[in-house]
Amino acid sequence: MTEASVREFKMPDVGEGLTEAEILKWYVQPGDTVTDGQVVCEVETAKAAVELPIPYDGVVRELHFPEGTTVDVGTSIIAVAVGDGAAAEPVREAEAPAAPEAGAAPEAEAAPEGRQPVLVGYGVATSSTRRRPRKGPQAPAQAAPPAAAAIQAEMNGHGPAAPVTRERPLAKPPVRKLAKDLGVDLATVTPTGPDGIITREDVHAAVTAAQAPEPSAAPAAQAPAHAPAAPSSAPVSYDTARETRVPVKGVRKATAAAMVGSAFTAPHVTEFVTVDVTRTMKLVEELKQDKEFAGLRVNPLLLIAKALLVAIRRNPDINASWDEAAQEIVVKHYVNLGIAAATPRGLIVPNIKDAHAKTLPQLAESLGELVSTAREGKTSPAAMQGGTVTITNVGVFGVDTGTPILNQGESAILAVGAIKLQPWVHKGKVKPRQVTTLALSFDHRLVDGELGSKVLADVAAILEQPKRLLTWA
Fold this sequence. Notes:
By secondary structure, the chain is an alpha+beta fold. It is built from 9 helices and 23 strands.
């Protein structure tokens, strides 16, 4: 077999613009035969978990990265020998990763261009981080390269690389700015990132250490030498004497970044209204018996979603986004309705495309599919892109209301509180009624108080008198 008979399968862009993905699980091992279209691994992006099929027939020669490694898009992850004699072809030494010297600058790489209650939470945004191997509490930048890479390097006859001297610590521009703002000298910071790169966490740790009069942590000998093994679908956590630390990665990391970006970019305003939804709850029970909804899940969220869609139709300027580069407000003539969902991998916001054009049964069907897919952890990246307005249902946890943070890039998010039987003045008398509290957060750059108030008032009015779904539609 010739050198050209070994094909390299590169990490694809599975999320329309994402720059990296974590290898959750390998379904094949070196020596296994694979066929065109066979799934070889599962990866997790900042948006979802995705299975990757191999695009050709052959025999697996090498897996370039272990499970738990985050790999840049465009980087080869598996070598497959194709053609006659593939099974007899030895693994090529050239494919073995070289052992980097501790603290050396990373070699330049080709970068890509360019059953708990489920309905609660916020959204995610694409990640801009680079490759970072799974690590434990020790500082890997000061340690030797991974054992597998080091052993392979010795087998290939590569001796230790010559020490590399650098004039200043390695850190990305945002980290340097953070250090400058906090008055931290990067030369005094212990790096924990790959290849000796200083991370934001390292800078914060340096600040904490400088402020502490004496170390309060347990002796180093009591800390584990490395993080314990964990299922590949979850971040590796590890215990110290009095703490458990869980690395933030994948969907949770992207969610955190998106929430910080949203909170500090868009000026949030939140308004509240408490409303009698007794008639809406009666309508829910009636629709459950309607043959048009046979086999469909009918719940209060369905009518709340429809009420919000009608309110948007009456107040279309609420359905917009802010274009910072162009300094323009972009009003959308369609509604991709996001439903915040809590999943095993974190909070995501899949959306119902063109929800404004759906009938009530169609909306019920779409909601049911969205929830089921989210619970199974199979929400696709495409399902979480392009949202315009979001609903987050904190009421499933018995919470009365909240002040939701906008899903990044959207102008409004509606939080729905628990529906409870409460004393309420109805037709001049105090009676027990089904009552809930709604909260609407909106971006005050493009939604003023009048517009936000009108939308919230319309939703409340519809839920109080659901016949308005007919008269206002």
